[in-house]
Amino acid sequence: MDSYTGVWTLTRFALRRDRLRIAIWTIALVGTIAATVPVLDEMFASEAERAARAALMRTPTGVIFGGPGYGLDDYRLGPMVVNELLMSVLIALAVMNVLSAVRHTRAEEETGRAELIRAGASGRRAPGAAVMLVALFSNVLIGGLSVLALVSAGLAAPDSVAVGAGMALVGLTFAALAVTCAQLVSHARTAMGLAMLGLGVLFMFRVIGDIAEQGGNALSWLSPLAWAFQTRAYVDLRWWPLLIYIPVLLALMSTTSILAARRDFGAGLVAARAGRATAARTLSGTFGMHLRLQRGSLIAWTLATVALGVAFGSLGDQLNTFLAENPEMIDFIGGQADALTDSFYAVIMQYVAMLAAAATIVSVLRARAEETSGRAELVLSTATGRVRWFGACLLVALATAVLSMVAAGAAMGATAAAILEDSAYLGVLTLAALNMLVVPVLFGAAAAFLYGLSPRLLPVMWLWFVASILITMFGPIFDLPGWAMNVSAFEHPGFYPAVDAEAAPILIMSALALAGAVGGLAALRRRDLNAA
Amino acid sequence: MSTPPIQMRAVDKSFGAVKALDQLDLEVAEGQVAGFLGPNGAGKSTAIRVLLGLLRADAGSATVLGLHPWRDAVRAHRRLAYVPGDVALWPNLTGGEVIDLLNRLRETVNHKRKAELIERFELDPTKKARTYSKGNRQKVALISALAADVELLILDEPTSGLDPLMESVFTQCVREARDRGTSVLLSSHILAEVEKLCDTVTIIRRGRAVESGTLADLRQLTRSTVVMEVDGDASVLAEHPGVHGLSTEGSRVTFQVDQDQMDPIMRQVADLGVRSLVSNPPSLEELFLRHYGDDLSTPGVPQEAG
Fold this sequence. Notes:
The structure holds two protein chains of two kinds.
Chain A: H1 7-43, H2 47-58, H3 60-65, H4 77-104, H5 106-111, H6 113-119, H7 126-152, H8 157-184, H9 188-212, H10 218-221, H11 224-227, H12 245-262, H13 285-313, H14 316-325, H15 328-332, H16 337-373, H17 375-380, H18 386-420, H19 424-436, H20 438-453, H21 458-478, H22 482-485, H23 503-524
Chain B: E1 6-15, E2 18-28, E3 33-37, H1 44-51, E4 59-64, H2 73-77, E5 80-83, H3 95-106, H4 111-120, H5 134-147, E6 152-156, H6 164-179, E7 183-188, H7 191-197, E8 200-205, E9 208-214, H8 215-220, E10 223-230, E11 243-249, E12 252-258, H9 262-270, E13 274-280, H10 284-297
Parallel strand pairs in B: 3-7, 3-8, 5-6, 6-7
Antiparallel strand pairs in B: 1-2, 1-4, 8-9, 10-12, 10-13, 11-12
Helix pairs in contact in B: 3-5, 4-5
């Protein structure tokens, strides 16, 4: 048991360090639930409105962020909360837990802070165990308060408990997954990427399984994200799906425990190999440098968008099956079967653009990381001016945007063309990706502008980015007015291929992006550079 | 060349309410090694960042190799090399890759010297930077800077992570650089290092140069310690205004002498029947403590990043 020495101290320490973070996440998540439930009740007040909404939630687009679709036949408030809200909350919880788990384990080890801890009376398994206790605390807190919010909105108590328990268990599962990933690789960023990749894959399992079959098929049951839905809360409550989390949690935690007890401090499973003694010809100049530094993440982001493209591109024929089974939907969407397929792809292209925009922003902000770490100082003390240094970083960011969008569009197009046996989709969906390309570019330019002006202003860009995502994803549900929808950058390029693309918004956004990038470069020349 | 490689005149730099540089004067003469001495937080690194055009001076004038450090940064940087005090490297590049990358960006490198330096500093260039200790990261930056054919080296506490063996390699390398005609600005808080290497010294305190000149000049300004054994009564010396802190222990006498009063006092001492006499010029440490003694005994002096 020596290897667990110090767990309590570390747990209290982590809770002390994270008290603000935990409070913010709790308020954001529970607040979202508490605020949304009454809105849902009001928005879909009449029987007819609810039936129409339920029909929409049956479509593959609805299933992505909806769920396996329990309770759509009699769409009351309870099933509505589960179908409209739960998926996004679960994803947010998973992200929260992954970030927190890696931050307290591998990130501490990588920076060397954990060395101080480990040199004291604390065991090898203590950090992993402590982070699970912290996760237990924060997830039970969020789950519990969510139950209160649901019950006080007038929903059945046992079913609300099932929803809250499902939330907490999903959170814990991803915390456990992330701690395991943190044992495998020696880099916090890689560990985080690995856990996020896991989240993405498990999300896709659930989506594909749930689209293939209402209630989910075997593939969907492989995903911990599905079990929280399988309690059929507010429809036909059953508790046993929650039991599946227990062996999964135990398996992940024992894997962590075995790995943590055996490996060296600071080491991953893959030993560091010797590298080149001299730099390759390509590692030269600022562009070559930035490209080399971001090569890994450029490839990873592109693979992620391509995977999204392929996964959703392949769902095109499900739409046809769906329409064959629900012919009334054809009238509902305006009489054309193709229109549903096209608007499905247009929505997915917005999601691809969200991912690509995140990639582009992160790529631009590499400059900030270089600056605060002091590495920029080293580079700028050579014959490299600031404009060349940051300009090259922006070119790499642009390449990230182009590559992740176009590759995803082509992959989605090729998949759709194969599945729908209509080769036109390759061109159409590549074009759709090019249509949306301006959005990631604009976000990257906004990041560049604020970074150049003053990095303290960067939260403004993040706010806009998060608001854009939320507005595009949930705005239509809440029937937001036009001006509010217009806040989202994702709404401005035409909804191609469902609606014809327009040149004007793209030209205006491109001009804005150019102005932002040039302004950022000019501003950077004028300000002090500072290490953290 | 008319202007010296580095010249700062009355440079001010504030961060919010904190005055990091306060009318700082600093000069490095051509072909000389100039020591830049002060404890953490005195403003050494701020001054260097101004010289590198990373920070913009609020007031005063500065030139680097005759160029404006902010406007002509790139032109100046082609002719200089810099080693930061806390070297941060890219964790996924090897040491060898970093050295090459920096020299390509600097647009100058002496390949033969680079290979030589890697050997002398005993660096394994095939290891990823994330596995390097602080000392090894410092070696990477040093090798890259010393391998460059430049007119000016700016070294900010370059030996803080090196072991004594590597420190002597470093000392040797800096001397060789000076022999090639390179001017060097060496910031440090290690007095022995400055004493060993530097032709001139500037002592900085709270962003202001409090002393500067050659070591000999600086010593002139202060007192030597004399320890001697005499047959006669040394207490008469105490009446001399140039003698301080006289103490007697049997025949053994210790006191400090103002440098400019050395001659008359020695004449007086000669009459006392000297058996042995040792006179030590003030060490840099004493010079340093003279300016910082009060800071060291006053807790709560604000310290920002050096």
